[in-house]
TrEMBL record, chain A:
<dbReference type="GO" id="GO:0000160">
    <property type="term" value="P:phosphorelay signal transduction system"/>
</dbReference>
<dbReference type="InterPro" id="IPR050595">
    <property type="entry name" value="Bact_response_regulator"/>
</dbReference>
<dbReference type="Pfam" id="PF00072">
    <property type="entry name" value="Response_reg"/>
</dbReference>
<feature type="domain" description="Response regulatory">
    <location>
        <begin position="16"/>
        <end position="132"/>
    </location>
</feature>
<protein>
    <submittedName>
        <fullName>Response regulator</fullName>
    </submittedName>
</protein>
<feature type="modified residue" description="4-aspartylphosphate">
    <location>
        <position position="65"/>
    </location>
</feature>
<dbReference type="InterPro" id="IPR011006">
    <property type="entry name" value="CheY-like_superfamily"/>
</dbReference>
<keyword id="KW-0597">Phosphoprotein</keyword>
<dbReference type="InterPro" id="IPR001789">
    <property type="entry name" value="Sig_transdc_resp-reg_receiver"/>
</dbReference>
UniProtKB/TrEMBL annotation, chain B:
<feature type="transmembrane region" description="Helical">
    <location>
        <begin position="21"/>
        <end position="46"/>
    </location>
</feature>
<dbReference type="InterPro" id="IPR011989">
    <property type="entry name" value="ARM-like"/>
</dbReference>
<dbReference type="InterPro" id="IPR016024">
    <property type="entry name" value="ARM-type_fold"/>
</dbReference>
<dbReference type="InterPro" id="IPR000225">
    <property type="entry name" value="Armadillo"/>
</dbReference>
<keyword id="KW-1133">Transmembrane helix</keyword>
<keyword id="KW-0472">Membrane</keyword>
<protein>
    <submittedName>
        <fullName>HEAT repeat domain-containing protein</fullName>
    </submittedName>
</protein>
<keyword id="KW-0812">Transmembrane</keyword>
Amino acid sequence: MDGTDIATRMLHMKNKILIVEDEFLMLSFLRQRTEKENFKVDIAIDGNQAIECIDKNKYDCILVDLMLPFVSGFELIAHIRANKQNKETPIIVLSALSTESTIIETLSIGANDFLKKPFALNVLLTKLKLLIGGHNLLRTA
Amino acid sequence: MNKQNYSSVKSFYEWFNQYPLFIEIAIVIILLSVVLFIIGNVSLLFKRIFDAYHDVRIKKAKELVTAELTADLMMDDSLTDHDFDKYAIRIRELMLKNRLFKQVLIDQVIFYHRNFTDSTSRILQKLFNQLNLADSALKKLKRGAWELRAKGLKEIQEMMTGESNYVQLLNPLLNDKNNDLRIEAQAAYIRLHKENPFKFLAHTTEELLEWHQILLCEIITNTPNLEVPEFRIYLRSKNESVCSFCIKLIEYYQQLDAIPDLINLLDHPSQKIRAAAVSLLGKLDAEQAERLMIAKFPMEDLKIQLKILESVGEIGSGENLTFLQTQFLESEEFTLVKTAGCALVNYPFFDKEELIQEVNQLDDSPLARETILNHCTNVLIRN
């Protein structure tokens, strides 16, 4: 399978993502916006719901807020990395907690990228596509 | 009918009168209690019905606003001015139809504006301006309830950044007795005032509480392109909390020009300010302050003496080795000996062996200075 084939397949493939965010307004907007970009979207409003989704499904990318009820974003990232089917899934952290130590900690426990709130929606979508693209290429290679 | 009523009242009165006084009082109390119980429950029921109805209306308004904003306006990256105007007209019509819609719209616009930058934020700002939602925020400032005024200030802070014309409206609120209102007014002032966002510090008479200072620091560090003044000019403020806040900001922005003013604070009547000034002079490596700090050492209390020792150690000019060694060898207070020991560790020309010899020449000391020095020089222990 050459590079063009992979790219064409990726274009027509619906990538499945999980958005974990405790602010309902944010969650519903991100869901609509990513669905418009042809992603298949699952949502979780707290850490427990997110763990349920992660244990049941395999995702192409997971967007995680750090401040979550019940299970924190840090614990959730650790859980994703320990999960068999999602251990290599790219994780993008979205958070207003953006001190240097927080960013270092999230990246060191396994997140792939960090977006400080407020962020530009187009930047998020681009990162999402790039991370999924890279991840899929690695998987198919 | 009236006659019948009259006779039943009369018969009740006769029945009531046949009892002794204490029974009569008990009957009155029982009747009153029953009536109050019924009134209480009925009013509670009405309140709950009203609240439930209000919640349903709010929920509907929220759904409507979310749909308008997210399904259309914020979703479309290639929105033309003509399309935008059409959306704005539709939203204005909805605002006129439903009174709740306007406040819900403002709340959601602010929420999304706070979470997104770039084109999303620009569209929301444009919508806020086009619908004159600023008027609603400004009207809230004139309302009586402080919660409403604080809400208005929050809206101004988020959506009217850099609009200096409105700063004068904030002036009466900057020294309000209500803590929440005051902090919101000061935060709004910082974000609105382009030329001198900290000018309010000169006129702040109310205390800047610790949590208040933390919030202001967060706003200062998160506001882009903020004009940062020389905070030393506020160190002369009669408001102790303003002075303390400015010392923290001088440290944050590493304003070395403030050193002479910080030295003046060594004579400040407040122990807290003196301690903060000494500590910051150490962090800023203010060699010119060393001599004065050492001169003041004998007159100061223990807390400041400890800060002076730390600062002299931190400055590390090499000129005051004897002072630190004397404190280490002669003090009878454990914390002073330990702090002097820690200050000596990285001090230029410090010779540990020589000091231990001097320690051994001393009479039996209950403070075990050699052990303290070993503790201070142990790199594995954080002092």
